[in-house]
Amino acid sequence: MTAGPANAGEGPLAIICGGGALPFAVADAVMRRGRSVVLFPVRGWVDPKAVAGYPHHFIDIGRLGRFHRQATAAGCRELVMIGTVLRPALRDIHFDWGALRELPTVIRMFRGGDNHLLSILARLFEKRGFRFVGAHEVAPEILMPQGTLGRREPSVRDRADIARGAALLSALGPFDVGQAAVVADNYVLAIEAAEGTDRMLARIGELRSEGRVRSAVGTGVLVKTPKPAQDRRFDLPAIGPATVASAARAGLAGIAVTANAAIVAEPAEVGAAADRAGIFVTGIGPDEREP
Fold it and tell me: pLDDT by residue (tens digit) across 109-134?
């Protein structure tokens, strides 16, 4: 059943866009619900052709004052931030006066993991009168459902690997590192750090080709879960067709993400891609996250 307009009376929704397809999936879902959007793609991260069909203003990291003026002029009071983020070095950012006024906070923001950085960034926007909301709040249909997308189901061995990976990520949560790990036959092959999911999976493929991963092709699971204390308004774990392709190239059996707490871009295509690759994609519930 199609939901009615969501927050349609609260003005356009500002979407700060990182890379990838997710910002546009969110924008389309919000518009289907009857609310207008204004996209703020980060310059250098987003293909200009991809945003041509949407109202948009390109923004630069460090130009807080300019963003404030543009978003306010567009009538935006609520913000969503979604998409792949390429974390810059502090020395490479060119600040405007609006950001320079917050420089001690900005410096502190960069001294920690992504959840630390994004939480402080949200407070900076809220200080200026905006309200950060999660993409799943304005477009709940983008959340991964419980169960599988596609025909293939995880085996008993796969479910044991899923439980181990989820327990590992839960234990690592206080350190604010990545949201993904790869486990095969109860053996931890990789933990995501600054390289991101796709490069972590590419590393698994390289290790296989070097003979350093001894588990057979078709074993092992990519597990993605949010951090236990994560601010879920931003940076929820996400997968899409490209994740499926990367997992297949790495020789894995499948992908498991937390149901209702992870984002899936193009779910129909994800299921079809999984079927073509002969792997599973599943959303796990609380009972499947225990070792």
Answer: 566 666 666 777 777 788 878 998 99
CB neighbour burial string for 199-237, b if at least 16 within 10 angstroms, e if fewer? ebbebbbebbeeeebebeeebbbbbbbbbeebbebbbbb
Q: Which domains can be identified in the chain, with CATH numbers?
A: 8-138 (3.40.50.20), 143-288 (3.40.140.80)
Tokens of 267: 């779910």
Pairing status of strand 180-184 against strand 131-132 = unpaired
Q: What is the pLDDT of residue 65?
A: 79
Q: Are 83 and 45 in contact (CB under 8 A)?
A: yes
pTM of the model: 0.82
Number of other CB atoms surrounding residue 264 within 10 Å: 27
13-70, pLDDT tens digit by residue? 999 888 888 899 999 999 999 999 999 998 888 889 999 999 999 988 777 778 889 9
Token duo for residue 53: 């069909």
Q: What's the token pair of residue 165?
A: 């990976």
